[in-house]
Design brief:
Elements: H1 2-14, E1 20-24, E2 30-35, H2 46-60, E3 72-73, E4 78-79, H3 83-106
Antiparallel strand pairs: 1-2, 3-4
InterPro entries: LAMTOR3 (IPR015019)
Protein name: Roadblock/LC7 domain-containing protein
Pfam family, one: MAPKK1_Int
């Protein structure tokens, strides 16, 4: 996990627009969290990730296949707002997320 943490930390430090990366299980339980210093705790709290996970699950029920991305906007913050940046690093993140997923399934 230390190598994945370091990799995600590099992404957060490389892309100024990325404030945090959270990897959660399907219920929104945070498995890995990397964030910029001084980021308010409310942005990465567990209730938000659980709600985000539920939104993805509900969107999948629309009959258009698995939801790949859900975007949320609030008064102060936007979640997943830079789609181009996410798509650019998405394939790179996918491999790391699969490693975490396989570790969780094995446990």
């Amino acid at each position: 996990m230390a190598a994945l943490d370091a990799h995600f930390r590099t992404l957060v430090e490389t892309y100024a627009d990325i404030k945090a990366i959270l990897i959660t299980d399907r219920d929104g339980v945070i498995l890995l969290k990397v964030e910029q210093p001084n980021l308010p705790a409310k942005v990465t709290k567990a209730a938000l990730s659980a709600t985000f996970s539920l939104s993805c699950d509900q969107a999948t029920k629309l009959g258009m296949g698995k939801a790949l991305m859900v975007m949320s906007a609030f008064d102060e913050y936007q979640i997943n707002t830079n789609e181009g940046l996410l798509i650019e690093i998405g394939s790179q993140l996918k491999n790391e997320v699969l490693i975490i997923g396989n570790a969780v399934v094995a446990a």
